[in-house]
Write a structure and sequence with these properties.
By secondary structure, the protein is an all-alpha fold. Helices cover about 85% and strands about 0% of the residues. The protein has a single domain, classed as Major Prion Protein. It holds the Pfam family ATPaseInh_sub_z.
Length: about 100
């Protein structure tokens, strides 16, 4: 019975660690996406820092990535940029790869 309990605890610990890692990677990805969008919008360094944080905060509105995509797409469109949903989604995927490399590389 002890082996079963040890295995169960180990699996729970791995799940918790995997969830924590995913959270950190996603937050890093959102910061990178915010930095990318800020660069496209021509924001200053101070504005870019604030915008990165705002993109990370936007991810807490609902489950999934739609809230982040909606924010970035809306902000870039409001700034007068020619951007579409597919462009933001492609950047989001690219930034996810970059975030994983940064945190796990």
């Amino acid at each position: 019975m002890t082996n079963f309990n040890d295995r169960e605890r180990a699996e729970e610990a791995k799940f918790a660690m995997d969830e924590d890692t995913l959270f950190r990677v996603t937050a890093r990805r959102n910061r990178l996406l915010g930095e990318w969008a800020a660069g496209k919008m021509g924001l200053s360094e101070v504005e870019t820092d604030a915008y990165r944080k705002a993109v990370v905060q936007a991810d807490f509105e609902e489950a999934g990535d739609e809230d982040v995509i909606r924010k970035v797409l809306g902000d870039m469109t409001a700034a007068g940029l020619e951007v579409d949903d597919a462009m933001v989604r492609a950047a989001l995927e690219e930034k996810m790869i970059e975030a994983r490399r940064q945190l796990m590389g």
